[in-house]
């Protein structure tokens, strides 16, 4: 028994599903970030920054539902910051896209919010499981 869960138990299955969701989400963000033209479903002033922040909030939140170890949760969540930086640099080489420091900041802020939300909700669920 590892981390309180036998192989094949419900918690193990949920973690695998969330891991698959996280992997697909990273792929979608990478694809959308390096695609020459981007269309937003809802467009308003600052929509680009909101989409960046929400995307990275999601990417950094999911590790809190996957990894039982606190260090791994934080590591994988905070690795979204260098991912965002690398993708933003890559956009500078894609026709029709531009490098933006504001986008990098939105990615980083989204990551920080995702970590905060992830730590909070992980603690809430952990307390409920104990009681």
Task: Describe what this molecule looks like in 3D.
- With 131 residues, this protein is an all-alpha fold.
- It has one domain (10-130).
- The chain is built from six helices and no strands.
- The protein is elongated and about 55 Å long.
- The chain starts with 9 loop residues before the first helix and ends with a helix.
* Average residue-wise pLDDT: 88
Low-confidence stretches: none
Tell me the major beta sheet: none
Give the % helix: over 70%
What's the overall geometry? elongated
Strand content: under 5%
Computed CA radius of gyration, to the nearest angstrom: 17 Å
Instruction: Briefly note the structural class of the backbone.
Output: mainly alpha
User: Helical stretch count?
Assistant: 6
Query: What is the element string, with H for helices and E for strands?
Result: HHHHHH
How many individual β-strands? 0
- In total, the number of domains comes to 1
**Terminus-to-terminus distance:** 21 Å
Short description:
This protein is mostly helical.
